[in-house]
Amino acid sequence: MKKGLVLEGGAMRGLWTAGVTDVMMEHDIWPDGLIGVSAGAAFGCNYKSRQIGRAIRYNTQFAKDPRYSGWKSLIKTGDYFNAEFGYHVVPFEYDHFDIDSFEQNPMEFTIVCTDVETGQAVYHTMAHVDYNELEWLRASASMPLASKVVEVDGWKLLDGGVSDSIPLEYFEKQGYKRNVVILTQPLGYQKKHNALMPLMRLALRKYPYFLKAMDERHMMYNCQLDYVAEAERLGRCLVIRPDENIPIGHLSKDPQQMRHVYELGRAVGERYIDSIIDFYAQQ
Asked: CA-to-CA distance for 225 and 220, rounded, in angstroms?
């Protein structure tokens, strides 16, 4: 029975998830596959490359570096998080991404993006590392309004969370029958309609199907929460979530805040570690 790990996105809340997954790696927990959405993919790639601590390290190191992120980058490049520097310079020149480990690890690594022309989810399995594959990773985490549309392999893509925020059902259909699901919102959270839709309609008016997906995202997301709850009740998945709202903004540039959120995630990971081991051991 294949063991899966499902990582929700959530921008900088993903550092909380990185805290949990670093603890899992420290305890030699290696699922057969990982599916990540947005920040869940951008930080989750370090699970396949087996690089404990990398996500929090480079985010705190470059938090205040204008080359990495900021309004100047958004105005100059169209991306709040500088695409070229963050995805194609940092991993090769500053905080090296272990390509050999990533490519040799048999764990399947799946990225979720959204096709802006259809509003539908696109699932991409990333097995090796090159410029093109890193563009897929970037696309998954490219938040509407804060990012340009990413063009790769004939697709026009943005944030995977718009079309499949918690891809448990998809992963189950790929044969992953025992999944640990890491969410970035506390129990009882319900997503509301996006208050920025008027601005979205202006900025993304060329993509009506994407706008429709954005407009209905809160309903899709809340239905997925129901699906996860039922899967958990039936014993198909183990859900890990924060005890309360994660105290960080989507575009935070505060290294201390990042570190605090990461440590909160580590604490929850330590609390759940025996449950994770037991859950994966069951057939």
From this structure: 9
Q: Are 179 and 237 in contact (CB under 8 A)?
A: yes
Q: At what angle do helices 14-26 and 255-281 cross, to 10 degrees?
A: 50
Q: Are 73 and 50 in contact (CB under 8 A)?
A: no
CA distance 266 to 17: 8
85-96 pLDDT per residue, tens: 899 999 999 999
Nearest to 105 by CA among 130, 128, 134, 136: 128
Compute the distance between CA of residue 220 and CA of residue 118 in angstroms, rounded to an integer.
16
Distances in Å between the alpha carbon of 87 and those of 38, 161, 217, 252? 14, 19, 27, 18
Is residue 72 scored above 80 in pLDDT?
no
* Tens of pLDDT, residues 109-134: 999 999 999 999 999 999 999 999 99
Per the CB < 8 A criterion, the answer to whether 121 and 170 are in contact is: yes
Q: How many helices (H) and strands (E) does the chain have?
A: 12, 8
Domain ranges (residues) in the chain: 2-277
Could you give the CA distance from residue 62 to residue 253 in angstroms, rounded to a whole number?
9
The answer to whether 101 touches 50, Cβ cutoff 8 Å, is yes
Q: pTM value?
A: 0.96
The hierarchical CATH code for the domain 2-277 is: 3.40.1090.10
Gap between the Cα atoms of 130 and 107, Å rounded: 18
Radius of gyration of the chain (CA): 17
